[in-house]
From TrEMBL:
It is an enzyme of class 3 (hydrolase). Its EC number is 3.4.17.19. Zn(2+) binds at H256, H260, E286. Keywords: Carboxypeptidase, Hydrolase, Metal-binding, Metalloprotease, Protease, Zinc. Belongs to the peptidase M32 family. The lineage of its organism: Bacteria, Pseudomonadati, Pseudomonadota, Alphaproteobacteria, Rhodobacterales. One of its GO terms (molecular function) is metal ion binding. The keyword Protease applies. It comes from Salipiger marinus. This is Metal-dependent carboxypeptidase.
Amino acid sequence: MTAFDDLMRFERDTGALAQIAGRLGWDQETMMPGGAGEQRSEEMAALEGVLHARRTDPRVGDWLAAVDPATLDEEGRAQIRHIRRSFERASRVPGALAADLARLTSRAHRIWAEARADDNFAAFAPVLAEVVALKRAEGQALAQGGTAYDALLDDYEPGTTAADLAQMFGALRPRLVALRQAILDRPAPRPLEGTFDEAAQLRLSQLLAETFGYDMTRGRIDKAVHPFSSGSGDDVRITTRTSPLDPFNCAYSTIHEVGHAAYEQAIRPGYRFTPLGQGVSMGVHESQSRIYENQLGRSRAFCGWLHGRMTEGFGDLGLDAEAFYAAVNRVQNNYIRTESDEVQYNLHVLLRFDLEQALIAGDLDVVDLEEAWNARFAADFGFAVDRPSNGVLQDVHWSAGLFGYFPTYTLGNVYAGCLLQALRQAVPDLETQLVQGDLRAATGWLREAVQQHGGLYTPREVITRACGAAPTEAPLLDYLEEKFGRLYGL
């Protein structure tokens, strides 16, 4: 066995253990008895301690030093790049801090869920302050003289800085604000109204998952408060949620999570349990979920097919196909990021991006977060937050310690705009296929151009190779202005 072989065997075992840790998180969100929370916190902390010890094992450093990258192929060099980066980052974080974070965020998640249900930010604030303190310490340990927030962001979008994102987001904001205002000055289309059976929603969810290429023999759909995707390879699970008054929530949550899951299912099997065996970044991951959900799932062509399926499942919807399409893409004031339309969604993300930077930098105290959130929301959206569950408590991310994650949602939208341009060129009859509910060519192109590569390339390389040009915000803005300009007669 060479040093590279020994290293990869060790990494595959670490990767398998990480999958188990992910399964514990999935179970906590979906199946775990409510009284098991404290025990689960200890289980997750113990497993994180094992994983951190493996990721910082001195043998990893020895194997890396013994490997000559010149003797490796492209895949081998990519493996070494990821392993070296992970080893160096993990070695900067004390094992006790990693375990404390795992234990604390498991507890914080439960407290957040209860506080959200009770609309009581004060009940969540103390534990959130603890999470922020530990994440700030982790960021400072990782940064080695740089900014703590950039170090945390690098976990989700390697090679990107807050300054890079601020420049891109600064270019997005003016056109998004102008488009939003122009739309809200026009009459709103009729919404979909009625009461929609939960069992019928879940049947539609299953149909949509399969239509978009989710392999149910290697996955499953469950319900959760906050929909998510978990796992990779042959065990990739998703969750959705239902509302009796809003079947679109279930349908599009499912399509969105299928985008994530399809990415993980499509990665080359030989990469399994290695650093290449998962999506390369959360921005690229989000590009898949957003192009599935929006550019494909909310297109006029696909909405015609979906209108037929929902009529079969729920009866007369009271809207013809064109009015249904307008209802799917209805722009209206909304508190909730995950329920927001394409025009306003990124404004929700930019709010969170700015606030979490201030929290990590120490420029904003948790005790003042709710007030800061409400003031920024009123300034951006023109109306007031009515309760914490519609404001500062709506997202799970900060309870889980996911600081640096939020901006990858908008970055994913930017990537999706670029990918749509390339997809239209690659599949000239895309609209005709979508009218028939046939996603095979579209998802097949994404699988070949993006998903199969896993972590082989850097995030920007993946998008640049797929699109033939480096990513910019222009295609997304052009797409939004063209689509909503037609819908609202602008």
